[in-house]
Amino acid sequence: MELHGYPLKAKFNQPRPPPPKALPATGTTPASHKSHIPSHPERCSLPWIPGSYYKAAALNPTLSPLTENFPGLPPTKIVPFISERPNGVFTRHSLDDWHRSNLTNYKESETTRHNAERLRADLTRTIKDVYQQAKRTQGESTKNLGERINDIEYWKSELCIELDAMIRETNSLADMQKRLERALADTEGPFQVAHKCLLNREKRMGIDLVNDDVEKQLVTEIKIIRSCRERLQQCLDTVNAQLMCNKEARQELEKDLADKQMGHHIDSKCYQLKNTSRGIHFFKGVERIDATVSVPETWARFTDNNIFRSQSARAASAKLRASTESLLMGTADEMWRQFSKVNDAFTSRITEIANAKSKIQTHLAKTRQEIFQLETKIQVIQKTIRDKEVQLKVAQTRLDERTRRPNVELCRDAAQLRLVEEVNEINETLRNLYQCLRASEDMLQMLVRSKGVLEHDLVVKNNSLFIDQERCMGMRKSYPSTVQILGYV
């Protein structure tokens, strides 16, 4: 007989379980052999350990109730258990023993709970003392960090004030340097500038080639500019040297301020750290490391020296700026008087070309507006044609479908007549729309040709205006211009 739910090897390799101490009655034996223990599917998934199974079975040789061991049997077929010793074979303790055992457990539990309560009270007091001491110590450290942060903030504010003043002074001196360089650049090659103006004016077309007295004034301008360039170059060398001093002082201030900011950030982070903060770890032996390089006195003296050095450099820079400003004013006045004479000849011609250009632009704008409106109207006509074609498709489809009516249903009714009339009306409308579309496209071509003529004329005028205003006057505005030399652009 093979047991269901167990591997086949168990039938050959393992011994049978020991017989129970109590057996059912003889009269019920045939009935017990008619059934066997049903298989349990959940046991098939467990690992099979025969030795463990029989060892566990040997620890409790008693039989369980038949209603639990034989769940598959109906209640009428369960064999009742009949004991041959009704005096209680399984009784091991008396009722008094049971009560005494319960009382002993109760007293032991009560004693244990009392000891645990005393221990908890002691632990609560100890923990409270530890928290108070830690809070006091941590508060003193936090207070010292706060005082240090206040000191850093004070020197940071002093550094920021001085650094802002130095930056403004350096920027002002740098602007002065740029103005000097621009003035020198504007005075370079006066002959080349005048020659370029003449060559550019030769590129004009037709009657726009006009002679003027610009060339006569350029010779005098050359002598004035050469004298100014020598004085400006000497001043520029002095400004460059002062800028280097200012940059060195500024770098010291920025480095000191960056260190202060980093220290302030670190101390602020330490000041805000709490026991519940993230990112706190153990660093064993860190309290034995001393990486300090200064004391509060030397720390404050270092910043004070940097500020004093910056103030001295600023004073020298301001004095140099004043002398440079005076030099620029003098040279600018000399060059501007000669420069204005050369530019007078360009003013009238530029005005005439600008007026002609303005009229052409007005006509061109109107033409472009008309083209835009006509193109919009063409798009509307095309959309109308598409809509009418869709309507024509619907009407013709209806007529085609109605030709498939059977027998006498092919009636020339009002619907049939109206559909035929609708198709004719749509065809006539489409013919008119296509005619309007062709007329609009022809008119659009005429407008485009007119626009091309205006644009060509505008290009000619733009060329003359560009030569006089952009190339010639552009060079004249940058050389030598009082506005540029004084740094106003």
Automatic annotation (TrEMBL):
Belongs to the tektin family. This is Tektin. The gene is Tekt3. Microtubule inner protein (MIP) part of the dynein-decorated doublet microtubules (DMTs) in cilia and flagellar axoneme. Forms filamentous polymers in the walls of ciliary and flagellar microtubules. Required for normal sperm mobility. The keyword Cytoplasm applies. It comes from Regulus satrapa (Golden-crowned kinglet). One of its GO terms (biological process) is cilium movement involved in cell motility. Microtubule inner protein component of sperm flagellar doublet microtubules. Interacts with TEKT1, TEKT2, TEKT4 and TEKT5. Interacts with CCDC38. InterPro entries: Tektin-like, Tektins. It is a peripheral membrane protein. Keywords: Cell projection, Cilium, Cytoplasm, Cytoplasmic vesicle, Cytoskeleton, Flagellum, Membrane, Ubl conjugation. One of its GO terms (cellular component) is nucleus. It is found in: Cytoplasm, Cytoskeleton, Cilium axoneme; Cytoplasm, Cytoskeleton, Flagellum axoneme; Cytoplasmic vesicle, Secretory vesicle, Acrosome outer membrane. Residues 1-40 are annotated as: Disordered.
